């Protein structure tokens, strides 16, 4: 099956949304994203439904449990199963979090990797191995975090750039995570995004968050995107050009029509920044 690469604006493929999507996919939705761990080996009605959509739309695989920064061995069996799943459904792009989520068992949270030279080399070697097994260049997502590491040797931006260079991979830019971290750790989010390498940005996320306090935001994917994050996406397109961008919503999921409105807003921002002679940047 020919692998399809995403362009435009997308939405997370949630089982709760399948009945409404089977009735009609809103025009603004150009692609979908799924967590492969939730769909591998899934048969029956859900398996048939998925096949019906992957035959018509590009999909992205966004991993949840690879634990690229974790201390336990890389789950190579999972990677083989993901590659087979992606090949079977014609999925070109796989992304994962620049974090870890396991230590002799899953921790059910995405925890930050210390910003050290040793960590750069360690996680980059695991990314390279993942790319070898998947037979694809992958993209890593900048993660939200809440407590600075006491052993950090560099800042977050330097760490991300170093991993990208060492691993030879792409960047999955989560715009909301940049905003969340900028409030929690007091930096300029637009300057942070401006310093990222344009040529490495393969894919983008937009999402909502929860405000615990004036100086503490929690990345939840459970609320509407707020205006400052929309403004940051606008600035991102101005700085780096238009790339495939997905709306994440993982709980408190509203009706499809409400989600479609936010996807439409992504598409409208993309159209505003796309000139008639500028090709759409596709996920690499």
Summarize the structure.
This protein has 284 residues and is of the alpha/beta class. Helix content is 39%, strand content 18%.
Would you give an account of this structure?
The protein has 284 residues and is of the alpha/beta class. It has one domain (9-273): TIM Barrel (Alpha-Beta Barrel), CATH 3.20.20. 39% of the residues lie in helices and 18% in strands. The chain is built from nine helices and twelve strands. The chain has helices at 18-23, 44-54, 76-89, 117-134, 156-167, 175-185, 189-194, 227-240, 256-273; strands at 9-12, 31-34, 59-62, 93-97, 100-102, 106-111, 139-141, 170-174, 201-206, 209-213, 216-219, 245-247. The strands form three sheets. The protein has an eight-stranded parallel β-barrel with strand order 1-2-3-4-7-8-9-12. Strand 5 (100-102) and strand 6 (106-111) form a beta hairpin. Helix 4 crosses helix 5 (156-167). Mean pLDDT is 91; it is low at 276-280.
CATH evolutionary superfamily? Divalent-metal-dependent TIM barrel enzymes
The gyration radius over C-alpha positions equals: 18 Å
Number of structural units classed as domains: 1
Residue share in β-strands: 15-25%
Uncertain spans? 276-280
Q: What name does the CATH topology carry?
A: TIM Barrel
Distance between the termini: 18 Å
Q: What is the overall shape?
A: globular
Q: Helix- and strand-based class?
A: alpha/beta
Main beta-sheet annotation: 8 strands, parallel, barrel
